[in-house]
Amino acid sequence: MPVPLYQAKAELFRTLGHPVRIRVLELLQNGPRPVRELLTEIDVEAAGLSQQLAVLRRAGLVTSTRDGALVVYALSTPDVADLLAAGRRILGAVLTDREGLLAQLEAEARDL
Q: Which of 38, 80, 87, 109 is deepest in the core (most CB within 10 A)?
């Protein structure tokens, strides 16, 4: 029996629910990067990064190629970068709305 689309979407968002995975995807937006470069940019042990890269690979969000001992990762599709950009826009809108609400609450408190 096939997995319902909503369940597949939920699994995708669960995969994105780890800060190291998000950081990896952000770094790969500028093009493929070898693991050693990712390690210099992310404060995590090599084993931890390897584990998170494996999760991203299984989810189909990244691909890897090997050139001798060098393993290079890339986004599987430009749509992953689009999803990250959408997340930034949503977060910006949510935070802007919260700042507006906070300003309203502070104004009401001054009026009391």
A: 38
Whole-number Å distance between alpha carbons of 103 and 106 = 5
Q: Does residue 24 contact residue 52 with C-beta atoms inside 8 Å?
A: yes
The sign of the CA dihedral 37, 38, 44, 48 is negative
Which DSSP helix (H) or strand (E) runs through 101? helix 78-111
Query: Residue 39 burial (CB < 10 Å; 0-12/13-18/19+)?
Result: middle
pLDDT at 101 over 90: no
Q: Which amino acid would we find at residue 102?
A: L
Query: Could you give the CA distance from residue 27 to residue 100 in angstroms, rounded to a whole number?
Result: 32
